[in-house]
Amino acid sequence: MRKVIVNEWMSFDGVVQSAGADDDTSNGFAYGGWHLPYFDESSQQWVAAGYAEAGGFLFGRRTYELLAGYWPHAKKEEAPVADPLNKLPKYVASTTLKAPLEWENASLLPADVDAAVRSLKEEDGGDLHVIGSTQLVKTLLEHDLVDGFRLMIDPLVLGGGKRVFSDDGVKRPMQLLDSTVTTTGAILATYALTSPGKDGA
Q: Each residue of 181-191: pLDDT tens digit?
């Protein structure tokens, strides 16, 4: 069975909003692009290695539009990231986008997102990687569809903003599989979600 792996750039206090661009200023968020000063060569290689292992990608609408506006026209030196993003299947959760999607190998998920992702997990192939997509990640967590996380945790407290982990009362133990510290003091950490459970179990 394929796994769902969530990839996030995260502040020390768990914020993921507008990490790489000033694309989401909702609720007065004023720190768009806060992650970029922490992105060094080792973290770039880490991101590329993760994407290279993927069998496909899951996106929410905002993340899809942000990436689709850039990566099909990426520079040659960006090929290690651009190639998997452009060539692999991309599944998009959206109630506003209409098929067909313009980005190569991109398609809309059915309205019943959790059932659709559960079905995708049962197919053969490489793992499905979620990039950003805060609301989609929350939906997948709610339905116990997340199997692991690849997190870049920056040494920065933002004091507010969107997070992927809700105050839902659910305990989710994780196992650290790998970690390293970058030249900027960020932590690159890979976790497996070991036993998701409802109602704090």
A: 999 999 999 99
DSSP letter for each residue of 8-26: EEE-TTSB-TTSSSS---G
* Closest residue by Cα to residue 82 from 64, 70, 65: 70
DSSP 129-166: EEES-HHHHHHHHHTT---EEEEEE-S---SS--BSS-
Closest alpha carbon to 69 in 5, 23, 15, 35: 23
Where in the chain are the domains? 4-193
CATH architecture of 4-193: 3-Layer(aba) Sandwich (3.40)
Which SS3 state, helix, strand or coil, does residue 33 take? coil
What single-letter DSSP state applies at residue 74?
-
pLDDT in tens, 121-150: 999 999 999 999 999 999 999 999 999 999
**Could you tell me the pTM of the whole model?**
0.94
d(CA 146, CA 132): 14
